[in-house]
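Whether sequence alone determines local backbone shape is best considered at the level of individual chains. For completeness, the protein is quoted in full, as a sequence line and a line of structure tokens:
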Amino acid sequence: MKLIVNADDFGLSRGVNYGIVDAHELGIVTSTTMLTNMPATNHAFQLMEKYPKLKVGVHLTLSCGAPITTDCPTLINPQGEFRLTSQYPLLKEHGLSEEEVEAEWEAQIQQFYKRGMTPSHLDSHHHIHTWEPIIPVIKRLAQKYDLPVRTGFRNPPNGVRLWSDVIDAGFYGEGVKEKYFIELYEKFKAYDGTIEIMCHPAYIDEVLRQHSSYVEGRLKEFEILTRIKLAEDVTLI
């Protein structure tokens, strides 16, 4: 069984950053994806240099913080922050400019290249890259930068490399229990492909509380991710 354990939200806050690198160093986290538009982004880039074995991708967002680009009126609220929330799938009319989304996401990706770094892969905050109106954008950017993308699409776009064969998002909220890993193993132990687990380990700080409704569960995730013992035939990649 081949397993990727990816920690989302690198760059969200210093507490999140430290929680992720410690869950990598002390636990089973193998990769992370970074919000490149947040106050703790520079701190996350600094930590990258100290943990070279940690794969780091881009956590593309339209729903956390403020955009990097300045000419994006369809993406922002009157305060200049992203106007979408995690409830974006319920919108009957999204009103987004595809050109503005693409320019913003390219700017988020470029934060790596401007520092002479190459991201490992692409995914997104609240899985928005799998939303039907956004798929053409993620396809173009993935192909332009030759980067694999987190799966989770109802119909994966042609010509896009996927980061794994399966994504399991069950280790979240009420699903944050040690038995999750036992059940995952029983479900996939005979599977030949690669499974990705999405997780959100963190130390809690005030910035996290300001930007996320998912707070205490992150510390519980950290505790489990740093003490769990996986079956011998599980290969972390």
